[in-house]
Amino acid sequence: MARGRTGLGDAFGALAYPDFRRFALSLLLTSIGAQLVQFVIIYQIYVLTGSALQLGLTGFARVVPHIILSLAGGVIADRANRVRMIQIGQVGNGLCVLALAIVTYTGHVQLWHLYAVTTINAALTALTQPGRTALIPMFIPSDKLVTALALNSTIQQSSQIVGPALAGILTGALSIHTSYGANAAIYFIATIAMMRIQTSVTLPRVTERPWRSFVEGLAFVGRTPVIVSLLLMDLSAMVFGGYRVLLPIFADRLGVGVVGLGWLSALTGVGSVLGAMFIMSRGNMRYKGLYTVFGILGYCFALALLPLSPWYWLAQVACVLLGATNSIQTVPRNTAILMASPSALRGRVEAFRSMLAGGGPPLGFLLAGAVASAFGPVFAVVGGACACAVVVGLIPAFRRELLDPELGQVAVDDLARPDRTPA
Predict the structure, then answer these.
(1) Which of 31, 107, 370, 383 has the CB geometry, 3.0–4.6 Å to 159, for a possible disulfide?
(2) Which region, left, alpha or beta, applies to residue 416 given φ > 0 means left and ψ of -120 to 50 means alpha?
(3) Average pLDDT for residues 358-385, to the nearest whole number?
(4) Model's pTM, two decimal places?
């Protein structure tokens, strides 16, 4: 297996490819927009209701479209122009948030508007996310894949710094509807950024029926134990770690207000960037499975620390650790999954991963909100951390392939593919 050089000097090698740079810019803007709208909607629901259960129901609004549409998005991603598919989703998200800005400005906003936009936003993300990730190997050679995915993760996690901080500042200094208006503009600019992509993203013509393609993708995942194991560990962290929806409550208890809430969310992004930079410095590392296991266990520790923090500074430390450990497990895991999947199936494999990645956190939000309503927010988060640690600790005991130092070999069709030429 090809191994990239280690060290931060080579960490940004994927940016030498012009179309990946355009893709990365669009991803950054889209991710900022997603973080911004999620933050403001949760904050607005808390302002309107003050209910932990209502906050948790935002998870239900997200999980249904992700479960239903992610796999369909994978089938589409392996048949359609992935760039155009992403652009349509970005425009749709921009229009929805713009409508929300208008009803908020006019004073006609109702709770169902917030849940409706949350659902539509999740539906469009579910349809486009498989194609977004499946595009990356089309822009760069296979030996740069770890670096590209680490950069991809860094971009998404950087949005957790910019998005919540921007949302907190705009909402605190100006208004909620101003935040929504800025959000819509960000989505539209992200659409424009992808217009100059020149790499041919045309896929071979598919003649089999969509349902058969769908089943073929699921069958590949089912007969690849390493992918199933990695996905199960990630799912446990998402379902048992739905702390984000309870952050307004913790911020309120610490007396830091909406700006302090924004910084708690942003510091998770700071930690994520630091974790991704560490992973990039490792290059195409060995033992990707162990990075995943210990990364999630570290995440569980930080998850338990957050609600037990009596001081704002300690809660900030916990948020940084949450972001760092999440990146440390995410990049090796996703790299192993992509490298173990042939190009023709990547859209569908990524769709299955995207279904879990998009559906897991909303389920976690719903679970955290329900448990917090019954037993309190501290019990909800600490109990989730303990449950996640037990599950993730048990999986490697039954799936020894996670200990393989060469976990996630490059797919055969990619080894035969000529490398692309950077700018």
Answers:
(1) 31
(2) alpha
(3) 80
(4) 0.59
